[in-house]
Design a protein that fits this description.
single chain; about 325 residues; alpha/beta; D-Maltodextrin-Binding Protein, domain 2; five-stranded mixed β-sheet; four-stranded mixed β-sheet; 13 helices; 11 strands; globular; binds (2S)-2-hydroxybutanedioic acid
Amino acid sequence: MRIRSVVLGLLLGSLSMLAFGQKAITIKLSHVVAADTPKGKASDFFAKRAAELTKGQVKVDVYPNSQLYKDKEEMEALQIGAVQMLAPSLAKFGPLGVREFEVFDFPFIFDDTADLHRVTQGPVGASLLGKLDAKGVKGLAFWDNGFKSFSANTPLRSAVDFKGKKFRIQSSKVLEEQIRTLGGTPQVMAFSEVYQALRTGVVDGTENPISNLYSQQMHEVQKHLSISNHGYLGYAVIVNKKFWDRLPGDIRGQLEQAMKEATTYANKIAQEENDLSLEAVRKSGKTTVYVLSKEERMALKKAMAPVHNKMADRVGKDLLEAIYKETGFNANAP
Ligand code: LMR
């Protein structure tokens, strides 16, 4: 029985290599941020290690900065196989029908990276990635970016400062509720359009980790940046499942190894990159950087707390509880 399945496995393996015509396999990896960001650098790292580990049998072509596809199109392109790999922000999986990923958008749900990694690198994270299978998508890893800060042309220090302002958000219902809870108006917009929208005043402000703000020059068109670290932005690296399953087993194994190394690299550099970007924003003198005090941050946390109850059903109460358990979430502690 075992011999038969081994023979069958070998046969299927060589058939799949035949399906790829023995030629170098090309993986198109499309993403929306600059090459010089945590995601951009990790993508390039993966491409390099994939080529090395497969001895040139796999070529990963990285397309940064929405060169190939914008947010919404890239998900569709992956599903039809026009690209093989993406690393969308966790806030962009709702339109795919995987609403659970929006749990990462809950304000103040993670105190720090250690909290976050207990989720992304543990059983909760693995089960979340597994939910993608049904969509023809395979989740390979979580990559960090970092904690988001708010920016606008007016200072944002407490909840009242958000009233009546329009904020660009990613396509997440939780983020929509977050802005509404603060009395602002949320506007979903592709990442590639944010700079222009801020410049022309189509929206008043936005939220992002500093590496995204800086690499898109958003700080040049936002007079105020409040270091609030009120929520998390990170990525799930995903592939077209059919493509992945059809890869010869040895190649898939080598790519898994390259992804493992790229993940370690991504999560190591993310904080560093955001710190460097903050320093560069400060040096540019184009925007006033304000670090919220402990009390101001706590007041913002309290103001945003209703989002947790309101959106619990959207992501599932059990999932939310499982994350609270991992992180020891406390709505009343700073
Ligand atoms: C955004 O749209 O603000 C982010 O998801 C961009 C990114 O991929 O980091």
